[in-house]
Structure formats: C-alpha cells, structure tokens
User: Fold this.
Amino acid sequence: MQTLTVVVPAYNEGEGLRAFHARLAAVFDALDLTCEVLYVDDGSRDDTWAVISALREADARVGGLRLSRNFGKELALTAGLDHADADAVVVIDADLQDPPELIPQFVRVWREGFDVVYGTRASRAGESRLKRATAALFYRVMARLSPTPVPRDTGDFRLLSARALAALKQVRERQRFMKGLFAWVGYRQTAIVYHRDPRHAGASKFSYWRLWNFALEGVTSFSGVPLKIASYVGIATALLAFLYAVWVFGKAALFGDPVRGYPTLMVVILFLGGVQLMALGMIGEYLSRLYLEAKQRPLYLIDEHHAPRAGAHAAAAPR
Ligand code: UDP
Ligand code: MG
Assistant:
C-alpha cells in the first residue's frame, strides 16, 4: 500500500492537540493508505510533549520529534519533513484552522498525478480584519517582487509527492520562507480551495511584529528587487541633485550669489541623508542574511525522536 506521513509543527499546542489528533485519526481510518503522523514539538513550554507522548502510547501511527528549543515554525516544519519518508507528505497546522478532513481530497488530486497540492483559503474565519488586510497586502507585494510565484492566500497546508519532498530536502538555506520554497520546487502544482476555520484552542503564535519579520524574510529570500529600488532611488536623486546644481550655478553666474539658501541646503542634506540610510538599510538586510548563511550552522537540533511504531516508516523498513 502507498504511504502517507502527516507532519504537524506544534508550539504550545497542548490544549488542543488531543482534539486535533482525534479528527486526524478519523481521517486516517477512512484512507486506503498506510498513514502515520509526526508531531514536531518546537520547544514548547507547556505540556505539548507530554500530550504527544501520550498520543504515541495510545496510537502506533504517532511519532514525535522534539527540538532542543523553539526554532520557529519554518524550521520545525523542515525538521519534520527531513524525518518523513513516504509516498506523500501532508503539512498541517496543529490548531485545526486547516481541516484535516481535506486530506482525502489532497490525496485524490495527488493520485491524478500532481506533486504539490496546496490549500488556498477562500475565507479566514476568526481572524481580525487587520490580519486579513495585511496578509492580502503581503501576498500582493510578494507577487510583484518575486520571480517565483508564491500562490496567494495559501499557507503551509499542503500535500507533497515523494519527489517534491526529495527536492525540498535538498534546499538547506537557513532563512527559510517555506511558502516560497514549496513554490520554488515546481513540478505539477494545483490548489484546492477551502474555508479556514477559527483557531480551536490557544492563541496565535504570530504577533504582528513576528509577521512583519516573516514578511521581510519572504521578500529578501525570494526577491532582489529592494536592492534594485535602492539603486534606482539613488540614481534618481543624483540626477535631480545634478539638475538642481546646474540651476544653482547658473543663477549664481547670472545674478551673483547673496548669502541665502539655508533652507534648500537643509532640504538637500536631509533628503540625501534619508535616501542613503534607506539604501544602507536594504543592503544591511541582505548582508545579515548572507552572514547567517555563511556561518553554516545546523538548521535545528533534535532533543528526542520517536518514529511511529506502525505506518509509513515501519512499512518502508520492516524490522
Ligand atoms: N508553530 C511552531 N513554532 C512556532 C510558532 C508556531 O511550530 O514558533 C506552529 C503552531 O503550533 C501551529 C502552526 O505553527 O501549529 C501555526 O501557528 P499559528 O496558528 O500560531 O499561526 P497563524 O495560524 O496564526 O498564522
Ligand atoms: Mg493558526
């Protein structure tokens, strides 16, 4: 039988994880696949790991991976995917915002020959207007800036075929914008539209500050356009400054130069200073990322790993 691994990153999700697993297990029971789930505890500070361990005891299809600390969702996902080895892998959030009941539909489309089947949100219940507006803006800006098209209104909820997973495993960059990387892989991709539910339990782990940094990650990882903006703004200002200089010199030559012009001087200095700082900031963003890559640190560290007792792993390597 074909195998399916579901990877679930969880950070302080102890409260809702049992309910999540109950719904996932029901989906597994109805699938004609050898299924397993790998919960990745991203350094939770609540009882998430205890809940995962209890679920492992009760259900042989459950595996657990515990990172040494909180590495962030992107890296938790990466760790989970690195430890998955099945014909198809599904990535899903632990908060039941993405309905597990959609997985059979993903599987059906995958069997038609698609490599990446992603869920696109037709609606996002339970999220504030501000969050929806900023998310929409982000996807629009990304679409403009990045040569790799990142599908709109699409989270990490998706299915990957074995070869798409293998491709993704080869990407070892540290600054990981997973949505972009999933798209970068290519092959045959398609969307399934669904309605996003409100969070089942607990609160979102992404504050607006974290989301802003996430957006910055996305833009700098997948687009060099901001660097170009810096150069264009620089060229434009230099050109304007040159024209202005011609005008100032011309005026001085024709009419003499009584000591005036403090306001214009101030304006020019402040404007140029601002432009220079902006350009430097942009360059700095890329430079800091280059620095992080250059250090070649491991992406994440594992505290404990327990493969599921039954499921894709067991089917792939019988002991
Ligand atoms: N998550 C994680 N590490 C983190 C933050 C979040 O593994 O540092 C997980 C979290 O447990 C959840 C998923 O990523 O399963 C999505 O997080 P959340 O629901 O907080 O994000 P939102 O849906 O609000 O964008
Ligand atoms: Mg969520």
Remarks:
- The radius of gyration is 25 Å.
